[in-house]
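so i finally got all the pieces together for this one. its two components total, 676 residues if u count the protein bits. some of the lines might not be protein, just check the labels. i wanna see the whole assembly predicted at once instead of chain by chain like last time, that was a mess tbh
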Amino acid sequence: MASSHGTPPVFNNKVIAWVDHRLPIFSYIEKEYHTFPTPRNFNYFWNFGAIATVMLVLMIATGIVLATNYTPHVLMAFDAVERIDRDVPQGWLIRDLHMNGASFFFIAVYIHIFRGMYYGSYKAPRELLWILGVVIFLLMMATAFMGYVLPWGQMSFWGATVITNLFSAIPVVGESIVTWLWGGFAVDNPTLNRFFALHYLLPFIIVAVVALHVVALHIHGSNNPTGIDPKGPQDTVPFHPYYTMKDGFGVVCFLIVFSVFVFFAPDYMGHPDNYIPANPLVTPAHIVPEWYFLPFYAILRAIPDKLGGVLAMFGAIAVLFILPWLDTSRVRSCTFRPIYKWFMMFLVVDVIVLGICGSKPPEGFWVPLSQFATLYYFAHFLVLLPILGKIERPLPLPPSIADSVLKKKAV
Amino acid sequence: MRKPFARTLLVSGAIALAAFATGTVAIAAGGTEHPPARKWHFQGPFGTFDRAAAQRGFQVYQEVCAACHSLSLMAYRNLTDLGLTENQVKGLIKDISVPDLNDDGAPVDRPARPSDRFKKPFPNEAAAAAANNGKAPPDLSVIVKAREAGPDYIYGILTGYVPYDKLTPEQIKEFDVKKDDYFNKYFPGHKIAMAPPLSDDKVTYADGTKATLDQEAADVTEFLAWASEPHMEDRKRTGVRVILFLLALAGLMYAVKRTVWADKH
């Protein structure tokens, strides 16, 4: 099976050959996951797609088990989660995996997004691949938000109240939309029920979009750290065993870090207030979302106007959809973009600063800081990116991927 | 591309670390005076519950706290995890009667069984609030997880009362403390509805330990930490095995990966 082009595989096993003749799933696996020509020069940033996939499967598997033991009712949800922890055999393990799995799924996806941006993986001909990725990110945010409501602690309840209330900023129909979302006139049992139903549904939609994401990926193949296209077989290796092994190693390393949190600091990423049962009459001192939403929460609060804040928050994600057309550079990889490389790092710092701002009460020094960071975030995409592509002089690109690998070896 | 990549990784790592550090420090800096960090038997990756302390803590809970605070997620049978035998548990609950319905559907009190959840001090939240100046005392089942600085905070509250005559005039003015208010160093806003629950010799320990205020507070905190997460020791033990397994697997995977890639580097 050395050839990566043309020649369909021959199966010796009669059953496999019979099935494949009628439904070519084995040929498909052979073509897309065995011989699939993959650039030979990936660094470890390229592991995070596989890692995110593993986390998605882990979340669905643990989630189904949790759902069989959970009760979506305002009077029972909190205790149901604690019963999973205390009385279901190994229930604590399933719950800790799911609870921390959400955080680590986001960690993997944030690194995956950073890699895509740093190495220009969104540029032609991979625009749709990138857009599907942003759709997955949005679906993940919706799923995670609704999942955080299910334990029905104080942060669950008040987070749900704050976020659903955002829709009331929409002129004319806003209030009606909020009532429709809640299924009543306050966050209550109907809200919890529909959030549970949707939290169970959305992951399967994510799986479908991930499938499209992978299909789109396999049309033009992966980008690589040089950002130049493979020019022949000397530039690529078959996906298996080269990248199955490398991804496998990366996944295990990621799971080690994940395990440290699951087994030795399971509540580190959470908020203590969510161990207080939801109480509509007592508002927590600071309502904060889960850490992975903090940068967007900071953008929401940076704008002094409610509708403006909501638009800015959604705009911060919407701008990612048009990223392929905002970047005017003909070079993909930041490796060969001496100026943009630094602005890319500034963007990372900016998002971290936004995240810290989002965790603070909106007062004093944090208000202007989050406003500045918000402004910078949008300026990066809407001003710096289009201009830099025109004025930056990229470094000379290596003649081929193989060439860059061999040169590295010689150095 | 090795060098630029290594540098990128280093820079991102440094940024992440800095953010992590500032974040943690900043979180620690907010709010009222922080309870001092104590050393707990159950801390750290290999920490376990001090069974003797937790059993004494159960006694403190049962004789003092249980008058107002429920522990609704715990059942009497769970006490066997603290090292009590089944007969000891039965002995402990022989005088407790719990509400139930008889075969005719009439409400009755019957003797508690090990499978019963800890008896609540009040029939419902409204009754609990009515008996406590309008606010029901919180359930203690997950209290150690539900507070910033968990066990240190619980210990801090139990030992952090300052009598009215020891307060400075500034404190009395700033927090508007009246003569019959309770002032607690570590409670947000300082004025707390709970009267100082513990004092020296509030209980008499069966094992001869001297029942000082500190001892009682530390013991009941140990007990409540166990009640908040009875499976903690199992979690840590499993974690050690899982991580050792994953480390070995990672080593093997790396060796295979090197071999597979040998001709491509």
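Chain A has a mean pLDDT of 95.
Chain A touches chain B through 53 residues (CB under 8 Å).
anyway lmk what u think
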